[in-house]
Amino acid sequence: MKNLIKYIVIMSVFTGMVSCDTMLEPVDENRLDFEFVSTDPASAEGILLNGYSRLIDQFTFIEAATDDAVNNQLNNGFKLMALGGLNAQNNPTSRWNNFESVLWLNKFLEIIDAGEIVWSLDEDINEMFYLRMEGEALALRGLHHFYVLQAHAGIGTSGQLLGVPYITEFIQPDGNFNLPRLSFEATVQAIMADFDAALALLPTDYSDSQADLDPLYQQYDFNKYKVVNGSPYNLRMSGRIVKALKARLALFAASPSFLNDQAYYTMAAEFASEVLNTIGGVSGLSPNGVDYFTTYNVSTTDEMIWRGTIPTGVSSGIERRMFPPSVNGRGEINPTQNFVNAFPMQNGFPATAANGYDPQNPYANRDPRLAQFVVSNGDNFGGGTINTGVGGGIDRLDSIPQFSTKTGYYLKKLLHPGVRLNDDGSAVGQRTYDVYFRYTELFLIFAEAANEIGGPDQQINGMTPREVIGAIRQRAGLAQPDNYLASITTTEAMRQLIRNERRLELSFEGHRFWDLRRWGLPLNEAAQGIFFNGTDYIEIPSVEIRNFPSFATYMPIPNDETLKFPELEQNAGW
């Protein structure tokens, strides 16, 4: 764990281990050591807040390593990985560094256990700070272990399904970093244990309403309670977030590439439905869930379970990367024809000739989400008309290397429609924020898990997969009644529809790469494109050939870690 040792070296700033071979008396440099940090509230909380670093948001654009997109930058790590460059020395999807966040959190838990911090002179307020912050640390420790598990779990060289080491203490520089991987299920259980311990300490929501008070905190004066758990903290780890994370973890564990286990599917469905029923179940599906990214500047939204802070300033960095070149962007992410083909017709049926699809008018009568997520030939976007075929200028397919589209499409989803990139290099920016968990994902977790348990009409806590998928498709603007959905009667057919809805609804939010692996689906489907020659649309069957090794369902442990620490077993093939 080379990076962990590097982290310890960095942490030496706190220990003041600095020598000075001068004849002068050493100057008090006002360095903070752990003895001070362990008693100073602000410094201790600073250690906890480091646990909020490395959270995974929607702006990874890892889809360039999947069948959903191509990155037009030749040196993009995900592109190079998909083209055959993936190995144990070069893995852009590695999350091994999340263990550094785990060490911060373990140090904070040591501080909490010592009980020497005085958050407040009021005994009750002080006690509640201890409860809440310990809960945050435990939940974040579980989350960071999940991130590492998602990226590195797999069949080891021993043939066993393995998870990752589970680190529950702060390791000193001379400590033992040579830790073996737990079994996959043991790792899942350890994460669940941290989540459950956190749930026993955290408020469900941070609120100024006494009606939201959890039983644990009912013994305290409410005015004191608000000091610790009031609305100003509502972006910190909460009980609601932890319950949603438990559902995500259980679904991951239950998936075909891992445990393929009905008990974990049941957990996922029950955990998800428990949270969803607090917002009214299916009727609580947010009406703005499809285009939440167009309302980033709204301070509250019923689509968000967990998001980052809304900045006071504006930005345009993502748009500058993604806008087409004629409106002064770099056109970096190009959705594929594979992805476009996944959108049904507006009547809800798959896009085939039998269902009304016209290959020479390919965007007519399609699922409205297609126009919301993808810039197609002839669309108005970013302050201009974008033509990707003949006569398209610099927006035309392959017109300018590393700027123009490789597939015939540009990305629209996640980009703020109010951003404008001016010819002089200036910009009209907008406010955006990080998104960590949306209610739409939780609905899809429920639908997938419940369907695997008992099929399309399996009812769990008042909801069924058919009802959830029906609500999502109705919100998307598909024709009602949804006759295609009504025609589905088997678990297998519903599974395909749920997976497709997940592909569309969560597109370009960092899920597809991991979904393909947990489902055990092929990774080497060639990225396809399209070109308008002035008369006809011509599909391009192979824009980019993918070259993942056959064992890439399970990604490697970093090679330098396995060389340094012999107890750390590598995944097979790497």
From TrEMBL:
What keyword terms does UniProt attach to this protein?
Cell outer membrane, Membrane, Signal
Which PROSITE patterns does this UniProt record tie to the protein?
PROKAR_LIPOPROTEIN
Question: Where's the RagB/SusD domain?
Answer: 324-574
- Show the Gene3D superfamilies listed in the entry: 1.25.40.390
Q: Which SUPFAM superfamilies match?
A: TPR-like
Q: Domain of life here?
A: Bacteria
Q: Which InterPro entries match?
A: SusD-like_N, SusD_RagB_dom, TPR-like_helical_dom_sf
Chief localization:
membrane
All residue ranges annotated as the SusD-like N-terminal domain in the record: 90-207
Q: Where in the cell is it found?
A: Cell outer membrane
Family label: Belongs to the SusD family.
Q: What is this protein called?
A: RagB/SusD family nutrient uptake outer membrane protein
| Native source species | Litoribaculum gwangyangense
